[in-house]
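Show me any protein, fold above all:
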Amino acid sequence: MKLTKFFAAAAIIGSTWHAASAQEMRASDAPRIAPISWWVGMNNPNVQLMVFHPDLNGRTPKIDYKGVELLKVNRVDSPNYLFLDIKIDPSAKAGDVKITFSAKGKKDLVMPYTLAARDAKQKKAQGVTNEDFIYLIMPDRFSNGDPNNDVIKNARETAMNRDSMYYRHGGDIQGVINKLDYLKDMGVTAVWLNPVLTNDMEKASYHGYAATEFYQVDPRLGTNELYRKLADELHKRDMKLIQDLVHNHVGSEHWTVKSQPTKDWLNHWDEYTNTTYKDQVLFDPYASQSDKLKMTDGWFVPSMPDLNQRTEFMQNYITQSHIWWIEYAGVDGFRLDTYAYNDADYMAKWAQDITAEYPSMTYFGETWVHGIANQAAFTEGKTINQPFDTHLQAVTDFQTYHAINKTFNEPFGWTAGVNSLYSVLANDFVYKDPTRNVVFLDNHDVSRFLSVVDEDIDKYKSGLTWLLTTRGIPQLYYGAEIAMKNFADPDGKVREDFPGGWEGDKQDKFVADGRNDVENDVFDLVKNLAVYRRENAVLQTGKMMQFVPEDGVYVYFRYNDEKTVMIVMNTNESEKSIKTNRFAERIQKYTKGWNIVSEDEMDITNEITIAGHSAVALELK
């Protein structure tokens, strides 16, 4: 059936839409179907299509395509929406499906829909494990590979100003692709980008956490095809792609917020109610229900409406979009933003649904909380007497983050200084598998570690040594390898541009000649440790043994059947000598220690002397 002139313009609703709209924003009132396409041969044959069109009222949908069955038509509060439950038989062939919407006395509406064939050769859902080293990038601030997409004319925000932390700077996906060899050479195995979906908000939308589309890469960052190319280029280098997801909220300009399908699409309040950010109420045995409700259903900020994840329509809308990106782009892992604010039952179901489709897929949640028990309560397994299993494999380990900061900013004491770090790790028994947790020194939300340690390079290098040798999955924030600094103050300077990522930059820190001696020293330390870690399983999956810190000195080991690595961290200002016979349990018959970074060799038969505020990683010989 021939489409009307109006709907011919809207025929981009199917899987071709993202290509046709590569350099523009989509109008929030444009007709559409979500997901924008699907595949034959998925493990779960069922999918729910959310259809939006201003002329759906009173129409009845029909699908006439071999192998595709329309199981149920769900009508909701808004006459402009229909939710269609369909089943795709394993025998169905890839092709273009016509969905016809009929009503007596009206001309038929036909909305095209694409069923694609799965790419059996495509790498995807490989999972990010303790064998990996994650590099976190804020795309807008890393490298501008395509100046042509710096400003999108029909976007709500068109200003670009690198002198302001709150405007866009022009970094993009092409810029990341251009620097993959730099990351590979440094030992990185997985790249995590802050959210890349369209954030068509009026201001400060560069960070990506206020999505207005679920199936479109922000045109200022690139296209869907370019994002898929990024995954392909990473896979060619034996690297992985981590996608940053936001379940909890969207931007206030999201098209389903402008025109809501159901009255309960969002968590509504009689008057604006902010979340309390008090994670404790979620597992407090004495907590009131009203406090719990404010925590989970209160809005994160006024410009980010809180999604009601208790409805099946919302659950399908969110989950299917994530499956779509794995299948379309080849995503290998997920980072889950603001995890604690989500509906716990839905998030457990989400994890099971993702794993059912992709058994090797991994995901870790942001749990910015204080307290080991608080953090562990969000992880998989019925930990700490939790009444249900979250099925969340891992978290961003804020407890070791807090502890490593105390290590270098508190004097040594019974529970202070480096004893804080020891104590946190000593409580790993509360997790089903603590080695899946993501450890970090800083990220886009907190002060850079160099500033936290008062720009003391020795302390900084000690922290980096710990990061790349402790248990878990290490994550490095972009620029940490060149000792970028600054605090998480209102100026937002922890999100400054990487020098050299823009044509015309006075300095190019991506190359050794553009870095000063200190920056090169830090870079070399990161590279030497990261490359060693990448090539030696002992720092990936090796067991860990730590010894109680004494006199400000912390010693721990990573070991397997092939190798043993001894890490010595001196948190004192002055150098310290330690007797090695205390560690005979792990040193055993080894007599030499090869410094992984400096490549020097030292005798370890009697004692080791280590400079103040320093750490060494020694492969025992």
In short: The longest helix spans residues 517-535. Residues 1-21 have pLDDT under 50 and may be disordered. The chain has 16 helices and 24 strands. The two ends are 76 Å apart (CA to CA).
